Q: What sequence folds into this?
């Protein structure tokens, strides 16, 4: 029988402040939309390619809620910006399909059996070409889906139109108001004659809405799949409070997804983000990286490889020792702040770079954030009268001291790789495949396998996600012989490692 | 309160064959002593430095058991080769002390409180200068210790003498018979008026002996600390069978120790082992590394850095995907076996390199093993009449095919880094510190914290081991502010990560 | 006395075809402007930042030649797009000054002596903020300057305006016709009461024009400084033909400039160019790099560091052996063309990638060129009826085979790093400093030191360029003691290496 | 026609002190034999493998000069330790042949034509298995050879015996007196009825002897091939003084040989040397490398790759800038001397590490030399009464300060890689092939191609050496098409680069 690992023991960690703070931020929804999860921005909405889409949002001021639209089959069970953009969106989806071989492979296997037959999935994620490939895969696997956006800005209208045209009830457009946001979610859930039995959430808003408005729905719901840090924490809170009434799958912390979202993706995007914004040369530059988790490890490795001299700060002695063994001087930020050319934060903490640090940096120092929120650099402390801000490029500000010293602040302290770089489709493919498999697992699990708790993706599923992506690299996996499997005490098809294995 | 993590869920893994096989090997004890754990061989007993000690073992044929020896204080509660070698052993210990700053720091802190006051520790490990620093540290922390060797060949007689001279009852010498081996263990345990309350074991023989001969002793024993893969597995077997009657600490799988024993240590020792045996040049060589766990990762990184072209084989798709992202072609062994210059096994599996592979290798191909046992290369298959073996150096055999093809087999397929390289004292320091802290934790834990189960070292202790080694690198840890700790929901002193964190 | 090294022996190399071809290309001037030297494009005219400047070129259709403009001092000895843009151009120049510390240091030292006092320099280069810093530095060193653009598209109008406003006679704008191009050059040279005595050229057009129109001018000219591959070859041709009538300095081949233009710059720009155009992930990708010169070495090192698997092709066995020792499989292109994800050319050769290769590539393969011309990929062979071209982004074409296979062709086979990336100011700083020092050397050289030949920059000057850039890295050079200098037989101030030293 | 490059311009460099000093050292010949060139020590005489040979030198005290020996063919025209050791020596030679494919390839090609037919070569080099492969190759190419050793300690007696048995007049044994040394050389040269027409020298002693004793011999000598730094300098001195009466080939500075002797070899041997002597761990260690030439570049790259933090000192601003761009902090030694764990010298200079530096190093600091002489560390300054020396291992001294501080000095400041590591046969293969080709070139050159000057190996020959070693790596060179060769202005068979190309 499949074994799974509960991470409910991590509930013992205290409720962190930033989660409480998050709730507060919700109130300011319209003013500062910061609800963008790390890994959900795709190529299609990157800085460099948004231009081509910009026209459609400006030329039509009518709210989609006030429009009457039908797709070519006559259905009007959707709400998107402009159904006529469907063809263009379809082309985007087709391109994405080419780079998401794992989902396409799932579709092929589903030609015989439909593992999601009977599933009624309500989803709330960024709506991009990659998400569309996921949604259409879920459909091919037998599921009925209804979808809303988890962010008021991130929807690609053309893609939403293409989905609507293909018969998926999508309620989402770029530039929703907060009221629109909840209206769209409600339209997904509150349908006559249709009730969801699975939830796919990114951020926890959909889950929250159902809890608040339609708690009875949980009776029929077989499980929640949640992919964001924030949403996962909300689930653990529910679990701790004894209020989680269905099994939930934390796909954020699956091995494969974590490594790609953090180590592998950031190893490339730190270089990309810095180059696109500053055209700087990396060779010979002195850099301090705050935090040596997966993100920090990726940043450090990339910059070292490009000839930068990298210093690391850490609070955790184990990660600190790793930094030492990997060839980085472990320092306190104060020790090097005067000499470095670049400061990069990857801690997930707040006020790691303070005004005091900023005051001591040298002229021309670049400051940016690769961590998970916009709190790491105390940007607010720079909003004082004696400092002048000069926007020199999109996402690049010069903050100028009275003596003429300039600090180059990127993306106003928000995530560099989201703001100034793009997330490769391959990374999104891993996330989407993980979500699909988690839905399949929860939907098909025998009664009793999962309790009302938060689970990590079973290792075997995690391994399966990885194996679906190996063909991209023409990589050939070795199979255990019977004799070897017996010797190791393993099943030939995995799982291959104990749960505590660290990779 | 300190939280700990039970790994008893890993018991669900089946009893592996190699562990059963291990039991069989015990019977051949005198013929093939392979009971050497990876990380316990020190500089002092390395290939290159044994010469200076060789004299003493040959010039005196009397068994230590038949000798009457007293140390300078008149005690004869020990059994070593030659108490007169104490001074030379003391010098070795002093040198080791310089490279084991963490234990020395523990001693300093123990000047006030004695966390092991009242502890009666019986130990069974390799007896080297580094172990002596550990034993004397345990003494300084308040413990009474009695010690035997866990291997019949690995004792440094001078060090054993120095310990005996300092008043530690040590029963051990180089070249024990199997009967001597168990006699020594028994002398540690079976003492009138003294009964152990803590066990420090390496391989499980001491634990096994007490279970078999003095099961009642467990009533007073507060816990077992075990550091070897083999010993840990035996404990899990006991636990599974419901026979584990005291808490046991698996220190083998602590993060810090694992990373140093495997990734960091092997990254260096693969180069060292290959150079010392073959004087080969790494640049441009084609190498296949079987297995991409921590050991494989270390080997691959080192060889890539030296200009080798590295191929990887794997059975686990997650590790396979990591190999791809780290820049290695993932292949099946058959695909590259004809072209590679070096084959390195790091799987922990058996018959990874078969006679068929060996038949297909090209002339001059080097074959060696960095995994945890001597089963990975099917060396037995090379003992056939048509093949000629030629010993060209210590640890280096040429196996010659009828057509003149030569395969260079290192260490007869045993661990290359143990046989042909040395383990840096720094790595041993981490192991010894981990053992000391595990003893302190188990000994001081409040009633009920630990059940009759196998535990991993509490993360906070693991972090403490790491922090004690940071000064070696002049590394400066950052401390959380109160505000930041609150924001993150962490205690300022750690633990800093959830248990499932992968590092 | 200063020793210099003539490279006239390299004249023994035959006149290469591509130089002959170059002359032919000149006739197609208006159709395909490819006269962009590798290292002369600056941040300010990069892909990502041109948008802000695009307005000015479209809103005013009057030719600058037909306009009447005066700067604030009343001078009209210039011809630029719009003198009113001077202020914006000045800001760009000031930003560039911050990143060109070496030229600023030269200005400071020139406060006492003016090494170019009396120099009348006519220049023909790309006109960018960095060039402006050079021109104004030459002015500060005592020179009078007149300037034209070496490329009809690369002028930054704002910067030209700022120079004109500051009193430098500049004749240049973005979007010149070929007639404009030569008219601008002529306006620099053909001035009443002013005759140049130094030439700074990039591509050889200015030199060519004077040879053709005003050969008598060479009587007063003390030397030519030329920085492009093309221009240097034209000089060697003149020298070989006995027609070079003044000394010329080949600054293209100075050590410092070469390393930065090629190895160090390409190491970063290959990643940047690929990311900006394709958002691809490097990890695990199979790449073949054609050519292992400095550019190839840079590309290979960067991609290997990012986790790509890199193959190399080479014709020169010495470079091939280096590729092997650096850890790359040396192959023929045919051997890997079916399996690679990316093909990069860095040979300087023609038809390295042929239609036959393109036919065999797999779906999605990316093809691009980092070499010195647009000949390496046989792009013309893709202009056949059965292939469909689809422009998917700026600089990115999909070429689609009848079976649906898509090849991703970047920049239509032109230089990737020029077309899709930017050249860091620091690299341009090294080039500009080298040019300034070459001018100073030629202008101040005692009679007879330089004959009518082509010279490399004296090593001591090359070392000086390097030393002026060390402070950027807070790098501290060690000085020889008298005793050490005597021991080594060196002057304490250099040169430190024999001419044949390879670095 | 083949073009060659005279490096006589480098004569302009002053006669360095260390060359003068060298002459002085000759007088102390018997006391301190330091005449070991970097690249001539082979595996067979490495530290770790000498033991097997030690017996023969001790059991027979008769001087070879006093013995009567004949080989199996009855010849006694040789003088070796013991002709009976020939068989064992032959086996060593056969092993070396397997790793020297380039010379074996030359032999094969020589089956038709004998390019050295008529050549009478007198040689003076280290006599090792690799040299024997060279000598026998020269024989196979048609030459007659007579050979002496260039060092009184480095001869492998078995190999000398094998050569004598095969009919080569060899005069050499391990442990010659200075008188023996010159006697052996004389026996090679001063032969009735035989006069050499080619010289192969390593260090210049043979050349010196002929100049002094038999100057008339030069009338028939067609050229000298010299491979050591010292010997090359002596030749330049002769040339400068107008006393060089035959062409000489400086093979020391050929590209291929330089890269392998320095960059590629040292990249590996620095790690090997440090590990074998100290068993230290590289990860996290702070290291300062003095000098960033090829040797320094190799050391820095290797240590950085192993996780050390590396600082560099340099006097040459160009190399300094390279160090910066490669990611190393450029410092003065004083800035880091207190904090580093390892100091490595690679400058070729003297007193780079002074007593003052040594006084300031921290406890346990390791000091070693990878440069070309034993002058870099001022070891003499450590021979003062207040410091205690303790030999802890072969080649490892602890120098102990009055306060207990210990410095770990390796190889007493002599070359670490020669003293404590081995030179791979592959590197020696490149050297030997270069020597063979230089002899062929000089012997076959048409009258007048070479004057009485010192020449570098023609680039085409250098390329040929490289190409002969490519098969070792299964490397496949690409060939130019006719069209491409024309385009590039190159001959399809090379040379492929101008002389000033830097690789």
A:
């Amino acid at each position: 029988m499949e074994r799974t690992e509960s991470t409910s023991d991590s509930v013992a960690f205290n409720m962190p402040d930033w989660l409480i703070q998050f709730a507060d931020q919700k109130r300011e929804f319209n003013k500062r939309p910061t609800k963008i999860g790390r890994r959900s921005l795709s190529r299609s909405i990157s800085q460099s390619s948004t231009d081509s889409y910009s026209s459609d949002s400006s030329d039509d001021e009518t709210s989609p809620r006030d429009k009457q639209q039908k797709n070519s089959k006559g259905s009007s069970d959707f709400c998107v910006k402009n159904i006529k953009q469907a063809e263009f969106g379809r082309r985007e989806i087709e391109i994405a399909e080419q780079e998401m071989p794992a989902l396409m492979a799932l579709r092929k296997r589903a030609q015989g059996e439909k593992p999601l037959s009977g599933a009624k999935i309500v989803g709330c994620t960024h709506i991009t070409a990659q998400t569309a490939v996921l949604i259409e895969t879920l459909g091919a696997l037998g599921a009925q889906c209804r979808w809303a956006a988890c962010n008021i800005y991130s929807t690609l209208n053309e893609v939403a139109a293409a989905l609507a045209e293909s018969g998926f009830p999508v309620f989402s457009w770029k530039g929703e108001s907060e009221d629109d946001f909840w209206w769209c979610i409600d339209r997904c859930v509150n349908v006559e004659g249709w009730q969801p039995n699975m939830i796919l959430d990114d951020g926890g808003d959909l889950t929250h809405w159902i809890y608040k408005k339609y708690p009875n729905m949980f009776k029929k719901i077989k499980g929640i799949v949640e992919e964001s840090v924030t949403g996962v924490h909300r689930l653990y809170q529910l679990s701790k409070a004894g209020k989680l009434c269905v099994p939930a799958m934390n796909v954020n912390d699956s091995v494969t997804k974590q490594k790609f979202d953090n180590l592998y993706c950031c190893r490339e995007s730190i270089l990309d983000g810095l180059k696109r914004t500053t055209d700087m040369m990396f060779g010979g530059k002195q850099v301090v990286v705050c935090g040596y988790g997966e993100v920090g490890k990726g940043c450090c490795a990339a910059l070292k490889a490009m000839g930068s001299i990298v210093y690391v700060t850490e609070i955790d002695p184990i990660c600190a020792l790793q930094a030492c063994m990997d060839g980085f001087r472990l320092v306190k930020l104060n020790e090097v702040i005067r000499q470095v050319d670049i400061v990069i934060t990857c801690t997930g903490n707040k006020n790691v770079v303070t005004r005091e640090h900023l005051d001591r940096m040298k002229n021309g120092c670049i400051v940016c954030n690769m961590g998970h929120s916009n709190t790491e650099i105390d940007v607010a402390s720079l909003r004082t009268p004696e400092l002048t801000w000069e926007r020199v490029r999109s996402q690049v500000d010069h903050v100028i001291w009275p003596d003429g010293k300039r600090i180059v602040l990127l993306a106003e302290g928000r995530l560099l790789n989201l703001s100034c770089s793009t997330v490769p489709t391959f990374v999104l493919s891993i996330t989407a495949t993980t979500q699909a498999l988690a839905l399949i697992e929860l939907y098909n699990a025998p009664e009793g396998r999962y309790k009302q708790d938060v689970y990590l993706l079973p290792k075997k599923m995690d391994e399966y996600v990885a194996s679906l992506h190996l063909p991209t690299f023409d990589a050939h996996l070795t199979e255990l012989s019977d004799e070897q499997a017996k010797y190791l005490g393993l099943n030939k098809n995995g799982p291959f490692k104990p749960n505590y294995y660290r990779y």
Remarks:
- Residues 1-14, 22-58 of chain A have pLDDT under 50 and may be disordered.
- Chain A touches chain D at residues 283-284, 304, 306-309, 324-329 (CB under 8 Å).
- The radius of gyration of chain A is 23 Å.
- Chain A has 18 helices and 15 strands.
